[in-house]
């Protein structure tokens, strides 16, 4: 996911109006066939019966969703109770993604503010420095993080050599390692939208507040923050949403105990123990959560856009 | 008092910015440094050597990496080229095609791969190929890559086109150029930087993809990320760090080119 997804380029002329159907056709065809149709097919599969060696039997069934939410005992004949296993995995994913978002905000906001207040000429260089890591392979970055955080890895060696700790701190395969991994993966997504909104901010407003004896922190909190809020929310969503469905960070940094949605879904499609309809249902639930978040966000952006203009 | 009115500078923000850069770069620098380690163990430092780079090209895994690299690069070139052509056409319709019904919907469809979580796209594509009875392999990877590369190519191309005033093509048309000629000889050359930068970003995105590829690749076909992932599952070996460093280098070079190309203003 990249920034700027919410703003399509605007129309400049209608020079090629008569050709537009033909010009758009390839994009419609490819995206319709390889993204939209697959999502539709996934919805269908989530209502089918599972085949034991992976795949499905074409028979309508609610078993996948039922398995997700209800526990009917070992033989399926007991009164339904709420099944907490999968709800807890989703809840843990929300929690992990949320903490990663908070960490990104704590580091990303001051960084974005600092960059936006530099002279205009050097700002693109700072932004470029923040962007480079995003374009480096996520797998390689996660592997690097795993290497860095190991019990006898470079981070622990460094901490012991400067005397901060006397024995290695155990980070890998903990919840914290996953949060660090997610935070590290998506940190640039926080900095960029916040930077974009602070850069547009009219600093005379803050100066006026300071002239009226508001302290610097009051100015930041009461004057700047409400104005740049859309950028902050955009940053939070750009970190939270991909973190929620992340597979690599929990898989490589978290170990088996720190399961998240991504791993739960992946497991259903690997090997012979998989349950395709259940995996499709879990993916559908994740997709619905993400779409709800994006819709609420789009509404809010539209509203704040109206207020501003 | 002076420091109180200096609302552009907050104490500590410099420190946090430096910390931010350290966090972003430390893991990459550490892996790069350790890829030059002479030791066979990843924990002990035994001096600088190119041993593991040689191992990538001639060692026991070299055949596997070579095949994976050929797959990765050929898919990335084809997917990025196709996606760039499709995205350029789409951008022309969206930016130079006036307002029309379905414009918002078209933009929604183009940005769909950015909104749907990758793992969901991966599962959906796997299910789709299974449902229509497609055997998974090289072709399915290519098809999936073309689809998710489109928005990454589209965004810089559309942004560039929006920045070029319509007067250029209108001037050409006033001088009796047909619309096709105005596009081919006026708009397209001006679009150059946007198209190159769109292509490069699509190329990196394709080269980097792990999750979707992992689902649609089928048995036997590997790309560099899936081969690296398979290796890492058995523990991080020094040759993996060497291959990672090379891939990291490719990405950094491409992004740097894209950055300088997109800054170039040829409308003057």
Describe the structure.
The complex is a heterodimer of chains A (309) and B (268). Chain A has 309 residues and is mainly α. Chain A has helices spanning 20-45, 63-69, 84-116, 123-135, 138-149, 154-161, 175-200, 204-211, 216-244, 248-254, 261-268, 276-308; strands spanning 48-50, 56-60, 70-71, 81-82. Chain A has twelve helices and four strands; from the N terminus they run H-E-E-H-E-E-H-H-H-H-H-H-H-H-H-H. Chain A has a two-stranded antiparallel sheet with strand order 1-2. Mean pLDDT of chain A is 85; it is low at 1-7. By secondary structure, chain B is mostly helical. Chain B has a single domain (53-264), classed as MetI-like (MetI-like fold), CATH 1.10.3720. Helix content of chain B is 75%, strand content 0%. Chain B starts with a helix and ends in a 5-residue tail after the last helix. At the A-B interface, helix 1, helix 3, helix 4, helix 5 and helix 7 of A face helix 2, helix 4, helix 5, helix 6 and helix 7 of B.
What is the strand content of chain A?
Answer: under 5%
User: How many separate structural domains of chain A?
Assistant: 2
State the helicity of chain B in percent bands: over 70%
What's the β-strand tally of chain A? 4
Could you name the CATH homologous superfamily of chain B? MetI-like
């Amino acid at each position: 996911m990249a920034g700027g997804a919410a703003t399509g380029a605007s129309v400049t002329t209608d020079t090629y109006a008569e050709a537009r159907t033909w010009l758009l056709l390839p994009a419609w065809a490819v995206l319709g066939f390889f993204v939209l149709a697959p999502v539709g097919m996934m919805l269908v599969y989530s209502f089918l019966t599972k085949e034991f060696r992976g795949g499905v039997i074409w028979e309508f069934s609610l078993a996948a969703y039922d398995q997700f939410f209800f526990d009917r005992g070992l033989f399926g004949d007991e009164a339904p109770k709420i099944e907490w296993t999968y709800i807890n995995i989703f809840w843990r994913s929300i929690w992990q993604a949320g903490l990663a978002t908070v960490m990104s905000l704590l580091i990303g906001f001051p960084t974005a503010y600092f960059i936006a207040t530099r002279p205009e000429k050097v700002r693109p260089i700072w932004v470029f420095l923040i962007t480079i890591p995003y374009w480096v392979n996520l797998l390689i970055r996660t592997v690097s993080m795993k290497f860095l955080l190991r019990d006898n890895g470079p981070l622990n060696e460094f901490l012991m050599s400067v005397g901060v700790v006397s024995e290695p701190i155990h980070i890998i395969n903990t919840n914290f390692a996953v949060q660090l991994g997610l935070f590290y993966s998506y940190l640039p997504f926080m900095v960029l939208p916040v930077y974009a909104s602070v850069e547009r901010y009219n600093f005379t407003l803050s100066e006026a507040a300071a002239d009226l004896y508001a302290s610097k922190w009051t100015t930041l909190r009461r004057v700047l923050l409400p104005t740049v809020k859309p950028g902050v929310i955009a940053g939070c969503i750009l970190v939270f949403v991909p973190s929620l469905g992340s597979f690599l960070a929990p898989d490589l940094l978290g170990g088996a105990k720190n399961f998240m949605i991504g791993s739960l879904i992946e497991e259903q499609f690997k090997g012979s123990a998989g349950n395709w309809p259940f995996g499709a249902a879990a993916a559908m639930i994740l997709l619905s959560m993400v779409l709800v978040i994006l819709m609420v966000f789009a509404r809010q952006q539209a509203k704040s856009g109206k207020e501003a203009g | 008092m002076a420091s109180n009115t200096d609302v552009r500078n907050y104490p500590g923000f410099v420190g946090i910015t430096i910390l931010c850069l350290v966090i972003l770069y430390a893991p990459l620098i550490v892996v790069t440094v350790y890829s030059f380690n002479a030791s066979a163990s990843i924990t002990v430092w035994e001096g600088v050597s190119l041993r593991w780079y040689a191992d990538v090209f001639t060692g026991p895994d070299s055949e596997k990496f070579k095949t994976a690299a050929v797959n990765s690069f050929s898919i990335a070139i084809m997917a990025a080229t196709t996606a760039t052509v499709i995205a350029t056409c789409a951008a022309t319709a969206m930016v130079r095609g006036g307002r029309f019904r379905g414009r918002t919907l078209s933009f929604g469809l183009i940005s769909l791969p950015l909104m749907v979580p990758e793992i969901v796209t991966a599962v959906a594509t796997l299910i789709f190929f299974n449902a229509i009875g497609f055997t998974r392999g090289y072709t399915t990877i290519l098809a999936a890559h073309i689809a998710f590369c489109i928005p990454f190519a589209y965004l810089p191309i559309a942004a560039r086109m929006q920045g070029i005033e319509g007067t250029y093509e209108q001037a050409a048309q006033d001088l009796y150029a047909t619309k096709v000629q105005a596009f081919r000889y006026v708009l397209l050359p001006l679009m150059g930087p946007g198209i190159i930068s769109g292509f490069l970003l699509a190329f990196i995105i394709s080269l980097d993809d792990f999750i979707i590829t992992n689902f649609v690749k089928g048995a036997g076909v590997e790309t560099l990320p899936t081969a690296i992932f398979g290796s890492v599952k058995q523990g991080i070996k020094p040759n993996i760090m060497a291959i990672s460093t090379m891939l990291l280098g490719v990405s950094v070079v491409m992004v740097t080119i894209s950055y300088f190309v997109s800054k170039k203003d040829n409308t003057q």
